[in-house]
Specification:
The chain has 148 residues and is of the alpha+beta class. The protein is built from 3 helices and 6 strands, in the order βββαβββαα.
Length: 148
């Protein structure tokens, strides 16, 4: 994974060092090489004791912390995008329809202005004058009433 571009302030971190646990030879119980980093704003804790060196463990723990913070930010961004998309896309409910094209009955119904025209074939050929006039008249009526 690439190094992520997340700015982590030092005052937001609590770094604890301790002796590594488990099998590992003579240096395990004599050096403080394990590192635990706590990110205070999020409460995220990363523990690393893979290397013999405290410096290497700290660097590895910081990489893991950056990656986890990046995942959290990415999930938050994806949730915002998803909510935005969901607000733009309707539920598909019949009440959200703007227009109905009924070819067997040669009928066009505009549900916003309650207009029904029985000349769908002419409208599909480009004769939109009556439909557009009705939409413009409705828009003017709403503007005069102050309704949007």
């Amino acid at each position: 994974m690439e190094e992520t571009e997340i700015d982590i302030r030092q005052e937001d971190l609590r770094i604890d060092v301790m002796r590594s646990g488990g099998p590992g030879g003579q240096s395990v119980n004599t050096t403080d090489s394990a590192v635990r980093i706590t990110h205070l704003p999020t409460g995220l804790i990363v523990h690393c004791q893979d290397e013999k060196s405290q410096i290497k463990n700290k660097a590895k723990a910081m990489r893991i912390l950056r990656a986890r913070l990046f995942e959290i930010e990415d999930a938050k961004l994806q949730a915002e995008r998803s909510a935005e998309r969901k607000s733009q896309v309707g539920s598909g409910d019949r009440s959200e329809r703007i227009r109905t094209y009924n070819f067997p009955q040669n009928r066009l119904t505009d549900h916003r202005i309650d207009l029904t025209l029985y000349k769908l074939d002419l409208i599909m050929e480009g004769d939109l004058r009556e439909l557009l006039d009705a939409l413009v008249a409705d828009e003017r009526r709403k503007a005069l009433e102050g309704v949007e």
